[in-house]
C-alpha cells in the first residue's frame, strides 16, 4: 500500500503521525511511505531520519495527499485540506466528528474512508488509540491549570501544593477515566487537595483504592458539582462519551458561584466540551475570561509536548496502521472489530451512531458497508 504522512497544519500542532522507527516498521512490511518535508521537525525528527528509515520525502502536502492510498495523521483535516482528500482514500487520524458539523459534511462530500482513532475500541470498552493522548492531556491539564492559577495570568494567585502553614489548592476533576485519573495523580503528587467525580460507583471504588490520601471520590451529579465548584480553585473537565458530544456538566449560570480567578481546563473541548462556556482555543491564545473565571480550552493540548506525544501515539497506532496496510481497510475491518468500530464515515455514509445523532444525519450500519465494499 502507498502511505502518506503529511505535515500537520493546525495552529501550533507540532506532533507527527509516525516516528522514523514507525516508518521503518511499515517499510519492513513492504509498503511505500511518503512523508512531507519537515513533517517531523516539531517532534525532533529530521527528513534525514525518515530517509534512513526508508521513507521518500515529498516537498508539498498536495503531493502527499495526491499519491497516497492511506493518509496517517494526528489531527482532523482542516478546511485547507478538505479538497486534497480523494474519493475512497483512507484517512486514519483523530476526527472528533461530533464536535464539527462542517468537518462531517466535508468528509461525506469527499467520499473518503474516515477511520477515527478515538472510536477504535477493545472488547473491554477501552479506547487504545485515545489512551496515550488522554494520559498526556490529563497530566498537562494540571500543569497548565497550576500555571494559570498565578495572579499575573488572572488566576487566584494560589500555589497548587501550598506550603507549611498554608493550605493547598482545591482541585475538582469531573470524570474518572484516563484523563481524570492522570490529572488526579498529578494534582495529588503536587500536594493539592483533590476531589474526583464520576457516575460509576465501581470506578469510584477503584479510584478510592489506588489514590493517595489527599484524593477524595464523590458521585457526579448536579447537586454535588454545584456544591464543590464554590470552593474549588482549579476545575478539570475530563468527561468522554466515545464518538459523541460531551454533556455540559458545568453550565453558564454556575460561573457566578465560583470565586474570581478560578481556573477551568476543559480537556473534552474537542468533543464539544463539558463546560458550557468553553470554546476551542489554541496554544497561541490558550485562555479567555468570563465572569472573572479563567477558561483554558486548547483542543490539542498534547501538541505542546510533541516529542513525548508523538512517541506515545505511534506506539499505539502503528499495529493498527500495519493491519490496514497489509490487508486493506475492508478486510482489516471485517476481521478486527476494534478497527471496525473506528469507521465513522465511509464513502459518503455515516456509519457511527454518535456522529449521525450529533448532526441528525442518516445512519448506515457499518456491516452493510463492509459487505458491499470492494476488496
Write a concise keyword list for the protein shown above.
single chain; about 375 residues; alpha/beta; Rossmann fold; 2 domains; 8-stranded mixed sheet; 7-stranded mixed sheet; 15 strands; about 35% helix; about 15% strand; globular
Please render the helix and strand layout as text.
Blueprint: E1 2-5, H1 20-28, E2 32-36, H2 47-52, E3 56-58, H3 61-67, E4 70-72, H4 79-82, E5 90-93, H5 101-110, E6 113-116, H6 131-148, E7 170-174, H7 178-189, E8 193-198, H8 201-210, E9 215-219, H9 222-229, E10 234-237, E11 263-266, E12 287-290, E13 293-296, H10 306-327, H11 329-335, H12 337-340, E14 343-346, E15 349-350, H13 353-359, H14 366-372
Parallel strand pairs: 1-2, 1-4, 2-3, 4-5, 5-6, 7-8, 7-10, 8-9, 10-11, 11-13
Antiparallel strand pairs: 6-14, 12-13, 14-15
Helix pairs in contact: 6-7, 10-11
Describe this structure as you would to a colleague:
InterPro entries: Ala_DH, Ala_DH/PNT_CS2, AlaDH/PNT_CS1, AlaDH/PNT_N, AlaDH/PNT_NAD(H)-bd, NAD(P)-bd_dom_sf. It comes from Rhodocytophaga aerolata. Helix 6 packs across helix 7 and helix 10 (306-327) crosses helix 11. The strands form two sheets. Strands 3-2-1-4-5-6-14-15 form an eight-stranded mixed beta sheet, with helices on both faces. Helix 5 links the parallel strand 5 (90-93) and strand 6 (113-116). The protein is built from 14 helices and 15 strands. The chain has 375 residues and is of the alpha/beta class. It has helices at 20-28, 47-52, 61-67, 79-82, 101-110, 131-148, 178-189, 201-210, 222-229, 306-327, 329-335, 337-340, 353-359, 366-372, and strands spanning 2-5, 32-36, 56-58, 70-72, 90-93, 113-116, 170-174, 193-198, 215-219, 234-237, 263-266, 287-290, 293-296, 343-346, 349-350. It has two domains: 2-119 and 305-372, Rossmann fold (3-Layer(aba) Sandwich), CATH 3.40.50; 131-299, NAD(P)-binding Rossmann-like Domain (Rossmann fold).
Amino acid at each position: 500500500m502507498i502511505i502518506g504522512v503529511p505535515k500537520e497544519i493546525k495552529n501550533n500542532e507540532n506532533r507527527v503521525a509516525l516516528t522514523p522507527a514507525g516508518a521503518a516498521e511499515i517499510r519492513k512490511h513492504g509498503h511505500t511511505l511518503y512523508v512531507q518535508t519537515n513533517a517531523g521537525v516539531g517532534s525532533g525528527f529530521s527528513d534525514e531520519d525518515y530517509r534512513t528509515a526508508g521513507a521518500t520525502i515529498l516537498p508539498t502536502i498536495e503531493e502527499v495527499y495526491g499519491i497516497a492510498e492511506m493518509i496517517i495523521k494526528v489531527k482532523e483535516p482542516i478546511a485547507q485540506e478538505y479538497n486534497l482528500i480523494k474519493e475512497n482514500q483512507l484517512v486514519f487520524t483523530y476526527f472528533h466528528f461530533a464536535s464539527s458539523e462542517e468537518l462531517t459534511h466535508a468528509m461525506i462530500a469527499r467520499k473518503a474512508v474516515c477511520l477515527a482513532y478515538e472510536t477504535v475500541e477493545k472488547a473491554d470498552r477501552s479506547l487504545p488509540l485515545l489512551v496515550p493522548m488522554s494520559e498526556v492531556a490529563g497530566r498537562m491539564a494540571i500543569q497548565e491549570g497550576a500555571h494559570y492559577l498565578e495572579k499575573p495570568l488572572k488566576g487566584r494567585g494560589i500555589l497548587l501544593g501550598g506550603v507549611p502553614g498554608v493550605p493547598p489548592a482545591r482541585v475538582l476533576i469531573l470524570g474518572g477515566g484516563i484523563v481524570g485519573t492522570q490529572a488526579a495523580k498529578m494534582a495529588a503528587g503536587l500536594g493539592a487537595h483533590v476531589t474526583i467525580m464520576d457516575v460509576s460507583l465501581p470506578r469510584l471504588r477503584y479510584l478510592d483504592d489506588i489514590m493517595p490520601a489527599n484524593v477524595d471520590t464523590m458521585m457526579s451529579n448536579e447537586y454535588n458539582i454545584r456544591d464543590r465548584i464554590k470552593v474549588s480553585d482549579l476545575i478539570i473537565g475530563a468527561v468522554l462519551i466515545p464518538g459523541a458530544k460531551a454533556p455540559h456538566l458545568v453550565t453558564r449560570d454556575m460561573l457566578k458561584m465560583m470565586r474570581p480567578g478560578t481556573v477551568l481546563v476543559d480537556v473534552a473541548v474537542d468533543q464539544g466540551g463539558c463546560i458550557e462556556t468553553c470554546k476551542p482555543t489554541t496554544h497561541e491564545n490558550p485562555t479567555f475570561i468570563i465572569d472573572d473565571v479563567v477558561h483554558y480550552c486548547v483542543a490539542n493540548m498534547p501538541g505542546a509536548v510533541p516529542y513525548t506525544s508523538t512517541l506515545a501515539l505511534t506506539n499505539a497506532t502503528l499495529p493498527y496502521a500495519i493491519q490496514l496496510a497489509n490487508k486493506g481497510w475492508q478486510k482489516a475491518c471485517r476481521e478486527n472489530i476494534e478497527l471496525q468500530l473506528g469507521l465513522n464515515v465511509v464513502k459518503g455514509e455515516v456509519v457511527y451512531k454518535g456522529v449521525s445523532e450529533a448532526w441528525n444525519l442518516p445512519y448506515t450500519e457499518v456491516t452493510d458497508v463492509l459487505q458491499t465494499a470492494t476488496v
